[in-house]
Structure formats: C-alpha cells, structure tokens
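Duplicate of #3305? Posting structure anyway:
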C-alpha cells in the first residue's frame, strides 16, 4: 500500500527526497548552525573570561547540545518538518502516513543525527540513504518519518477534503489502532487526488480502500455512506483524536485549549471539557446534500 497505481497509470504516493537534495539541505542547515555556534562561543568566551577551564568546558558542552541538537529539534517541531535548508530545497519531513511530524519524531531524528551526521561526518547517513529504497536515514527509520519533495513541477500540494457535515463524529467509536500507516498514506493520497481520476477508476479505488479500512477497524462500512465520504470521515476522526491528544490539558492542571467538535470519551480526569460533537442522525437521508466545500457528492 506504499504506492497505488490506478487504471489510468496515476501513482498515488509521496515523492521521497533523494540523497543530493537532502545533502544540499543539510549543508545549508549545518552552515547556519555552525555560524550561530561560533558567534555564541566567541560571545561566551569574551563574557566569561574570568571563569576557570572546567566552567568553560561545561558551558561549551551545554552550548554544543543546545545549538547543534536542541535548536534543530525545536525548528523541525515548530515548522512541522521544514528547516531552513529544507525550505530552500523544497523538502519536508512527514510521518510515514503523510501527516505532519510532532516533537517525538523530531527528537528521535535529532538524537540519531548526532551519531549519523555529526560524529560520523555524515558517512552513516549517506550510506543508509543510498541503501534505503525511500532514501531514509537511520533516524527516519526509528522515528517513522520520511523526507519528501514539496515542490513538484506541474503539481501542487493539496489538503485532504473534509467529510460531509452529517458524517462528522459518526465514527467516533471506531478502533483505529490496527490501521497501518501505509493504508493511511494511501487513503490520504487518494482523497487529495480523487478529483483527477476517471469516475470508474475513482469508484473502484474508493471501494477497495474502504473495504481495506473496514477490515482493519473490525466494523463494517455503513451501506448508506459512499466509499469516498466514508474514507474522509474516518481520516477526519483520526485527525480529531490527534488534535485532542495534542491540546488536552494534563491531569490535575486547570486551563487548556478547548477543541471544538472533538469526541469527549476517555478524557483524563482534570482536563478541560471538550465541546461534544453534534450528534449525527441515526439514519441519514441518502439524498441529504453535502456542504459545498467538502468535494463529495451526496449518495445516490
């Protein structure tokens, strides 16, 4: 499921970045990081000239970890996978399923990068990238990430269309833990490009992906929901759960961010209440029109 080819020879998949573009982006990042590191080092030496050698050594180690490890991790987390070098080369770090990375992904990549890039002078990273079929280094393998090309000639990145309003929150009880990242990636790519496919191919791919998703969740697909709308609704439910985990307040701490239209089940004690979704009708009318921004036609 890493790559789907339709009957019209349309490949649905991300375009992994190869070694030359990744090396150029890394070189830009390293130049910027080392310049900042040298400037800060000179400033600390001038300001702390009266300290002994042990204190200067401790400050140097702390600055090394902060500038060469902590800053790249923070930049990738806050920019969702786009450092200065990757932004200049049109690259981005994403999860295996195509979604944006979080702090834990950037942390694993940064920790492994100390060994792959800094200590071995990039030799380990180059070998791993050349051996990998998707151009991934060891840090990407452990973090479950992939560096992809954002700027593709003749194409543009599109977001996943939202589901029809009457399906929002309907699949809150689904168990999504058994759905692999490869299937999520295939569904996301189909939803972003379904408008470019032949109607017959579009329908067959939607049915195929919906059947695979229903088999993984253990719940049959509702007969009154079109396959494409079903896929979009389940993807929306997964994104809502991720947003809830990212914004929910820790237990026993007051304050936080209330995320609208998120399910309220399994909220830890002490967290801020989350607005409950509007209940979906028990038997939605097949002729109920979808919103104009969803991109889905109402079921026939």
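Output from current build:
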């Amino acid at each position: 499921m890493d790559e789907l080819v339709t009957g019209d020879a349309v490949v649905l998949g991300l375009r992994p970045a190869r070694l030359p573009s990744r090396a150029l982006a890394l070189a830009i990042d390293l130049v910027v990081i080392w310049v900042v590191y040298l400037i800060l080092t000179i400033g600390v030496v001038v300001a702390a000239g009266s300290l002994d050698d042990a204190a200067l050594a401790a400050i140097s180690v702390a600055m090394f970890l902060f500038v060469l490890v902590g800053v790249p991790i923070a930049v990738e987390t806050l920019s969702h996978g786009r450092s200065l070098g990757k932004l200049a080369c049109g690259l981005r770090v994403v999860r295996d399923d195509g979604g944006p990375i979080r702090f834990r992904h950037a942390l694993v990549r940064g920790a492994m990068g100390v060994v792959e890039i800094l200590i071995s002078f990039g030799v380990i990273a180059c070998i791993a990238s050349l051996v990998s079929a998707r151009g991934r280094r060891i840090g990407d393998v452990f973090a479950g990430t992939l560096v992809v090309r954002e700027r593709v000639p003749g194409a543009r990145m599109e977001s996943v269309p939202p589901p029809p309003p009457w399906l929002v929150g309907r699949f809150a009880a689904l168990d999504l833990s058994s759905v692999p990242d490869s299937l999520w990636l295939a569904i996301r790519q189909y939803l972003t490009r379904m408008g470019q496919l032949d109607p017959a191919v579009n329908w067959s791919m939607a049915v195929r992906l919906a059947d695979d998703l229903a088999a993984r969740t253990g719940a049959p697909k509702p007969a009154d929901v079109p396959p494409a709308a079903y896929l979009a609704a389940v993807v929306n439910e997964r994104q809502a759960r991720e947003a809830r985990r990212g914004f929910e307040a820790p237990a026993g701490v007051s304050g936080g961010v209330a995320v609208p239209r998120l399910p309220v089940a399994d909220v830890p004690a002490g967290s801020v209440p989350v607005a409950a979704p509007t209940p979906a009708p028990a038997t939605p009318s097949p002729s109920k029109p979808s919103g104009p921004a969803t991109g889905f036609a109402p079921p026939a």
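Confirmed duplicate; merging threads. Residues 1-12, 249-278, 280-292 have pLDDT under 50 and may be disordered. The longest helix spans residues 19-47.
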